[in-house]
Write a structure and sequence with these properties.
The complex is a heterotrimer of chains A (251), B (287) and C (336).
Chain A: E1 6-15, E2 18-28, E3 33-37, H1 44-52, E4 59-64, E5 67-68, H2 74-79, E6 82-84, H3 97-108, H4 123-135, H5 151-164, E7 169-173, H6 181-192, E8 199-203, H7 207-213, E9 216-221, E10 224-229, H8 231-236, H9 238-244
Parallel strand pairs in A: 3-8, 3-9, 6-7, 7-8
Antiparallel strand pairs in A: 1-2, 1-4, 4-5, 9-10
Helix pairs in contact in A: 3-4, 3-5, 5-6
Chain B: H1 2-29, H2 36-54, H3 58-79, H4 89-111, E1 127-130, E2 133-136, H5 137-159, H6 161-171, H7 173-178, H8 183-208, H9 216-231, H10 236-256, H11 263-275
Antiparallel strand pairs in B: 1-2
Helix pairs in contact in B: 1-5, 1-8, 1-9, 1-10, 2-3, 2-4, 2-8, 2-9, 3-8, 5-6, 9-10, 9-11
Chain C: H1 9-14, H2 22-37, H3 42-64, H4 73-88, H5 94-112, H6 121-141, H7 143-146, E1 152-153, H8 170-193, H9 195-205, H10 207-212, H11 217-243, E2 245-246, H12 253-266, H13 272-291, H14 296-310, H15 312-324
Antiparallel strand pairs in C: 1-2
Helix pairs in contact in C: 2-8, 3-8, 3-11, 3-12, 3-13, 4-5, 4-6, 4-11, 5-11, 8-9, 8-11, 9-11, 12-13, 13-14
């Protein structure tokens, strides 16, 4: 039985007296479609930051493909195949989507040290960039500065960038957040088209998206995992309903 | 040796009065005012002109120097500085360097390039011995005046309503504004006081540094920055500590190891910033 | 839903800045022509070229790495004294002296770069300033090596044994400087177009995101700072070699401030800004100071203040629009 793609054991994070994450243990098998839901302030983004290495845990371990990566920096984990998107777009405002993707692909291929040839001369890199642009529908904006793009396109770029790292594990932090209705379909289609062998954890408030995408769901409340199960179980669980009572679909 | 210490403390107190405005400006408005030395120069010149051309007695020139620089500060703050409060660090640096580049030739044009003295009156000159320490009367005067100013500032900040508004505004401008504090007015007054103190310091320093000349801002700007760098920008205490440290190190260094000159203070500054990037007394996540 | 990508479009877009534009070729040829056409002004041209190289080094630091430095003179001075001391110690072959002095400056850059990674912009300002002033004091204190306040005077062999660059060879000196500048410029141009250069740009744009793509920002920034330091060192060494003199003012705050102003005048982030700014600054200085020798600084300060108040990007955008109609968008594009 091979190691799970992503695993945490007893992960915790405290900020002084505030407990943001407590005793979180989860296992994501390879190719998982896992969603993390919970009310606002439950600590979902903190958990993502712990997984990616942006935050160091107060206790517990993070394992990537069975290897302990708890002590590794963010960029080291990226090199081991862990990528993420950000809840608020973190893009390169004055680079174009093509350039941003070129950077991402190039870094993955270890070109960061190359200083002599122009970034766009490597055929392999260009081919990958073209593929990503096509897959995410960015062809019409690929040569415009990112800050001029519509929000939905920026969101697509956000996901494309993470995917350019060819991650084995991908963490998506509210990919559909703030996206206008007419651009949502593109996001949903992009998510559905993600490669099957990539292990994906999705944080979302949009329950339609969660229930259509996820095969397993963890519910995080006040930093602790309330329950974990498949969509049917979660939907009918009384504790979950109580937590979400009063929370509309659009927050 | 205690004499050196005494002289160092005097120099340090002087630096404190000169630099505390810069420290507060940085801490309050997050603004790097490299032209701060120009306000000191202005005050020094005001004192020199009043004394040399109009025969105003020394002690009376001091408040005049304060007032002159403070008014200058208000004018420049209202017209120019306030447009750049949100600007990038680079823009602040460029702007204030530009002001210095303008201030020095202006001083040169109106007052020539020879150092203007501010002669200390007879009753403040001379030295005497006390417990084995050689005490210069003027230096003693400086310590007294600057110490009184430091004390007044501290009690003002703690005791008055203005001070009570200033401290939260330093911490978080937006929240303070949301609490109904008139941040604009706060800035203007604080900046003016800071400039005024610089002017006063310039007048006091004139005799020690051999007169006020147009290159004063550049010569001393580095010292002011060092005070702020070492002391952090968190307020009076930090600026005082930084200034005293710098004063003592500078005087002692130049006495004991004259060949090294200013090396010691630069090295101390760099070392401090390496270990504590936001100053010795900073709370860690300063500016 | 999605528009089809024409073949080669991405490649063309990514490489758009790599091609040499006609205006660039004209630029460099014009300088060569100028040196031959007006040999009596070779000294001035040399000064502009070397100030331009110095400003280029600051462009790498400020425009590309995004580090606000008030102490680039540190490396300039190390290069100058390095070349001077080497020459006086017997190494009178200019090119070798130049290379070694630059490498020493570069090493200093690599050593001090880690100090700049923590802390705020203000910290960086102070540390860079402090280091340059520190070195000035060290140079002052070690008069046995540096000549102290008297400075050093240097005598060198002709370049490649053929071209004297001393007082009688001012045109040669200008050409020597131009060739070195051109080579270093070419290297810098490649550097900023490369994957490494792209990552530097990305670090400046969004450090968090670049980390999330696997970029180790610290290492990259140290590297480019070291390269820039070597460039500044080269400029200092060339000044020493072509003027035959080194004095303590190479470490002055004024040097660091002037080069910053030159770069700002010319424009940050597209490599040519330093050269253009140096030309303007020195022309202005010479022009104005012959009219008002004591007060020329005022005429540098005033435009600078106005420039900042109006907004550097607004002025930049204004000029960009004015030039854009001719279809010439200059090399870079990343503003500071």
């Amino acid at each position: 039985m091979s190691a799970p793609a992503l695993e945490t054991r007893g992960l915790a994070r405290r900020f002084g007296g505030l407990v943001a994450t407590e005793d979180v243990s989860m296992r994501l098998e390879r190719g998982a479609r896992h969603a993390l839901i919970g009310p606002n302030g439950a600590g979902k983004t903190t958990l993502v930051n712990l997984l990616t290495g942006t935050l160091k845990p107060s206790s517990g371990v993070v394992l990537l493909d069975g290897d302990d990566v708890t002590g590794l920096s963010q960029h080291s984990r990226v090199r081991r195949g862990l990528a993420r998107t950000f809840q608020i777009n973190q893009l390169f405002a004055n680079l174009t989507p093509a350039e941003s993707l070129c950077l991402a692909v190039g870094e993955r291929l270890g070109h960061g040290r190359r200083w002599r040839a122009a970034a766009g001369r490597d055929a392999a890199v260009v081919a990958e960039v073209e593929d990503l642009i096509a897959r995410f529908g960015l062809a019409d904006v690929m040569d415009l500065k990112t800050r001029t793009l519509a929000y939905g396109k920026q969101r697509l770029l956000e996901i494309a960038l993470a995917l350019a790292c060819r991650p084995r594990v991908l963490l998506l932090d509210e990919p559909a957040a703030g996206v206008p209705d007419d651009e949502r379909a593109d996001i949903l289609a992009a998510l559905a088209a993600l490669p099957a062998e990539v292990t994906i954890m999705l944080i979302e408030h949009d329950m339609d998206l969660v229930f259509s995408f996820a095969r397993r769901i963890s519910v995080l409340v006040a930093g602790r995992v309330l329950m974990e199960g498949d969509p049917k179980e979660v939907a009918v669980d009384p504790r979950v309903r109580e937590v979400y009572l009063g929370e509309g679909r659009n927050d | 040796m205690l004499t050196i210490l005494f002289d160092g403390v005097a120099y340090g107190m002087l630096l404190f009065v000169l630099a505390c405005g810069l420290s507060v400006t940085l801490g309050l408005m997050n603004f790097v005012n490299l032209a701060h030395g120009a306000f000191a120069m202005a005050g020094g010149y005001a004192a020199a002109v009043l004394m040399n051309r109009y025969g105003v007695p020394f002690l009376a020139t001091l408040p005049a120097a304060f007032a002159f620089s403070a008014v200058l500060g208000v004018i420049l703050e209202r017209t120019l500085y306030r447009r750049l409060y949100g600007a990038s660090r680079l823009d602040q640096v460029l702007f204030t360097i530009g002001l210095v580049f303008m201030a020095m030739p202006i001083a040169n044009y109106f007052l020539g390039d020879q150092p203007r003295p501010v002669r200390v009156p007879a009753f403040l000159s001379g030295r005497f011995e006390f417990a084995g320490i050689g005490i210069g009367v003027y230096r003693l005067f400086i310590i007294a005046v600057c110490g009184a100013i430091a004390g007044a500032l501290q009690s003002f900040l703690i005791g008055t309503r203005f001070g009570a508004q200033l401290r939260p505004a330093v911490d978080d401008r937006r929240v303070a504004s949301g609490l109904g504090i008139d941040v604009d007015r706060l800035f203007a007054i604080t900046f003016a006081v800071g400039c005024g103190l610089a002017g006063l310091g310039g007048a006091l320093a004139a005799d020690i540094v051999g007169g006020i000349d147009p290159s004063f801002p550049v010569k001393f700007m580095v010292s002011f920055l060092i005070v702020v760098a070492i002391g952090g920008s968190n307020g009076i205490l930090g600026a005082l500590l930084g200034a005293l440290l710098l004063g003592v190190l500078d005087v002692a260094g130049k006495y004991y190891v004259p060949s090294i000159g200013a090396f010691i203070i630069y090295a101390v500054m760099v070392a401090t910033l390496i270990i504590r990037p936001h100053g010795l007394l900073s709370r860690g996540s300063g500016r | 839903m999605s528009v089809a990508l024409p073949a080669g479009a991405v490649s063309a877009h990514l490489n758009r800045k790599a091609r040499w534009r006609p205006i660039e070729i004209v630029f460099w040829l014009a300088i060569v022509a100028l040196i031959f056409a007006v040999p009596s002004r070779a000294l001035l041209i040399n000064e502009i070229l070397l100030a331009g190289l110095f400003a280029l080094s600051l462009d790498l630091v400020l425009g590309y790495a995004g580090i606000v430095s008030l102490g680039q003179a540190a490396f300039f001075g190390v290069g100058a004294y390095g070349a001077g001391i080497l020459a006086n110690a017997g190494l009178t072959e200019p090119i070798l002296g130049l290379v070694i002095a630059s490498l020493i400056a570069g090493a200093l850059g690599l050593a001090t770069a880690p100090l700049l990674l923590r802390g705020s912009d203000l910290t960086r300002l102070m540390v860079t300033l402090g280091i340059s002033l520190l070195l000035g004091e060290v140079a002052n204190a070690n008069a046995w090596a540096t000549g102290g306040t008297d400075g050093l005077s240097i005598a060198l062999k002709p370049v490649l044994g053929l071209f004297p660059i001393d007082f009688n060879g001012q045109r040669n000196a200008a050409l020597y400087s131009l060739i070195v500048l051109f080579i270093l410029f070419m290297v810098a141009r490649r550097l900023v177009q490369s994957p490494f250069g792209l990552s530097i740009h990305a670090i400046r744009e969004n450090r968090l995101r670049s980390g999330a793509l696997g970029v180790s920002a610290s290492a990259r920034l140290v590297a480019i700072y070291g390269i820039a330091a070597a460039y500044a060192g080269a400029a200092g060494a060339l000044v020493a070699q072509t003027t035959g003199l080194v004095s303590l003012d190479v470490f002055d705050f004024h040097r660091s401030a002037d080069v910053l102003l030159m770069l700002i005048i010319g424009g940050v982030g597209y490599l040519y800004g330093g050269l253009i700014g140096a030309a303007f600054f020195i022309a202005l200085r010479d022009g104005v100071s012959s009219a008002t020798p004591e007060y020329w600084e005022f005429w540098i300060g005033l435009p600078l203040v106005v420039l900042v108040l109006v907004g550097r990007d607004r002025i930049g955008a204004f000029f960009a629009k004015a030039i854009a109609t001719r279809g010439a968008s200059l090399i870079g594009g990343g503003a500071a």
